[in-house]
Design a protein that fits this description.
Structural class: alpha+beta
Helix content: 40-55%
CATH class of the largest domain: Mainly Alpha
Number of domains: 3
Strand content: 5-15%
Shape: elongated
CATH topology of the largest domain: MetI-like fold
CATH architecture of the largest domain: Orthogonal Bundle
CATH superfamily of the largest domain: MetI-like
Number of helices: 18
Distance between the termini: 39 Å
Largest sheet: 8 strands, antiparallel
Length: about 525
């Protein structure tokens, strides 16, 4: 039997449509496009085409949602969808994009911005125009100058601050009569007081690094009496795609393969700019044995660390849940003590364990040395530090598995165990064929999530031993207890320069590795669920 909805009723379900609502909607969309277009235009001019493209996609999707009647249910979700695209999807896509570029130290900016920075740099030519000046300072140690320039009508006085010329309308002090004893700016309560020459000597070294004014009044202090006009050191020629160094007369040509401006003698300008390198970062990873060497052992250790930590934590939590699931005196108090590690912040727990295992004055570190009769430094031993990390991870994780196992055990019907007792099944057979299969049906996805969490647990590695002890003979900084995420951190921030492009390429590889492991685990969990259904 089919039910037909009247057309009028169907239209009402999509929202009432009136002339005023349509006009209001179109005006809102037009304003939305004006704001989005302004943002896209500025992002595109600054070289950030990726965020400009993202804003365009968000604007188009939002427009379609608000214009199409069948998309009415999505209208009130559109702000959330736009925010999700901007703060979730875009960073993921941009991370993958970075892996195909040379983004890193010296190549952090688009070409447009790199040129702007170079063109903003100034120098003092030998025949620079010089102005007599007087220095002023306020109580916050902020400086301003008053320059004496020669004009057609005689001397003119100009007030300048760092990187700006002060308009006369912003001054509360008249400059027609020369250098006043103090100057005040509109909207600022603190006046600037003239500094005596003897006090200027102490501030001269600091003043020489500051550019006062702009354009023809862009000056730099070179003595206690005069300030010289600076000229642009680098001038960009769009026709030849080159930059002229006016100070040295050297021409730097654009090298779009490496993202830098380079002269004929091989010297380069800093900063460079971001360019695409294709699969260069991935090829560098796959073909360079000096990079793959530490990475192979780090990957094996990461998998073992995550797998052992999760399995042992789950086993301990499940054992406690079963053991204390029975009626016994003081059960509530003991349970409360067992979940204490879960209530303490992980950072605090890791630092406490680091202190306890200190070989010099740590409780456990000194006790272990006394037990074996010789000094033992866990932090410098490649194997002991790994055992310690797994033990600490178990300490941090077992309360979580204890809690979820306790809840999952309550859902298993007791009549199954009664039937197993009648059939003569012992405790091991009941655990293997009843408890574990039914438990994994509900806990299995949580085990997969915990594996992924521990696989990327940067905090414990960094706070406990910073990935040490260091490996010997590697071309990149790497430690024996480093996991993949801490190794990527070293490459990005501790390798003598930030190599974000290469680090994000390895991050992308880690993502696909985790994706593969997760798919295998989910396939296994589907098998476990089928077994659980047959119990």
């Amino acid at each position: 039997m089919s039910i037909k909805i009247p057309k009028a009723r169907a239209n009402n379900q999509l929202g009432s449509v009136t002339v005023s609502s349509v006009v209001l909607r179109l005006v809102a969309i037009a304003l939305f496009w004006v704001g989005g277009s302004w943002l896209m235009f500025n992002m595109w001019l600054d070289g950030y085409w990726a965020i400009a493209l993202t804003v365009l996609i968000i604007t188009l999707i939002t427009t379609i949602i608000w214009l199409r009647p069948e998309a009415y249910p999505l209208r009130w979700m559109s702000p959330g969808l736009a925010l999700m695209l901007l703060v979730s999807v875009y960073p993921i896509a941009y991370t993958f994009y970075i892996s195909f570029t040379n983004f890193g130290t010296g190549h952090l900016l688009p070409k447009v911005q790199a040129i702007d920075i170079l063109e903003s740099r100034r120098y003092l030519p030998g025949d620079a125009v010089q102005f007599p000046y007087v220095l002023y300072r306020n109580s916050a140690s902020e400086y301003a100058l008053v320059l004496q320039a020669e004009g057609e009508a005689g001397s003119e006085f100009v007030a300048v601050r760092p990187n700006s010329v002060v308009d006369l309308a912003q001054l509360e002090t008249a400059l027609e009569d020369g250098f006043p004893s103090e100057i005040s700016f509109v909207g600022e309560a603190e006046p600037y007081t003239q500094m005596p020459r003897n006090q200027m000597l102490g501030a001269l070294s600091q003043l020489r690094d500051i550019t006062f004014g702009a354009d023809e009044y862009a000056v730099q202090v070179n003595s206690t009496t005069t300030a010289s006009v600076q000229e642009p050191q680098y001038v960009y020629d769009e026709a030849t795609d080159s930059i002229l160094d006016q100070k040295n007369g050297v021409v730097y040509f654009s090298d779009d393969e490496n993202g830098r401006f380079i002269a004929e003698d091989g010297t380069t300008l800093n900063p460079g700019y971001t360019v695409g390198v294709g699969l260069g970062n991935y090829n560098r990873f796959l073909t360079n044995p000096s990079f793959r060497g530490p990475l192979a052992s780090i990957f094996i250790w990461t998998v073992l660390y995550a797998a052992l930590s999760v399995l042992l934590s789950f086993g301990l939590g499940l054992f406690i849940a079963i053991a204390f699931g029975r009626n016994m005196p003081g059960k509530g108090f003991i349970k409360a003590l067992l979940i204490v590690p879960f209530a303490i912040p992980n950072v605090i727990s890791i630092l406490i364990w680091r202190g306890l295992l200190n070989p010099i004055n740590g409780l456990y570190g000194t006790a272990l040395s006394n037990l074996v009769g010789q000094p033992i430094d866990i932090f410098s031993d490649a194997w002991l530090v790994k055992v310690a990390l797994i033990a600490i991870q178990i300490w941090l994780s077992y309360p979580y598995f204890y809690l979820i196992s306790s809840g999952a055990l309550q859902a298993i019907p007791l009549d199954m165990y009664e039937a197993a007792d009648i059939d003569g099944g012992n405790w091991w057979q009941q655990f293997r064929f009843i408890t574990l299969p039914l438990l994994l049906v509900s806990v299995g996805p949580l085990l997969i999530g915990s594996f992924m969490y521990v696989f990327n647990s940067f905090n414990i590695i960094f706070l406990f031993n910073t990935g040490g002890p260091p490996m010997v003979g590697t071309s990149t900084p790497a430690g024996h207890s480093d996991i993949l995420i801490s190794y990527v951190y070293r490459l990005a921030f501790e390798s003598g320069g930030q190599d974000y492009g290469y680090a994000t390429a390895i991050t992308a590889i880690i993502f696909f590795i985790l994706l593969g492991i997760t798919l295998v685990q989910y396939r296994y969990m589907n098998i476990v669920e089928k077994v659980g259904e047959n119990v």
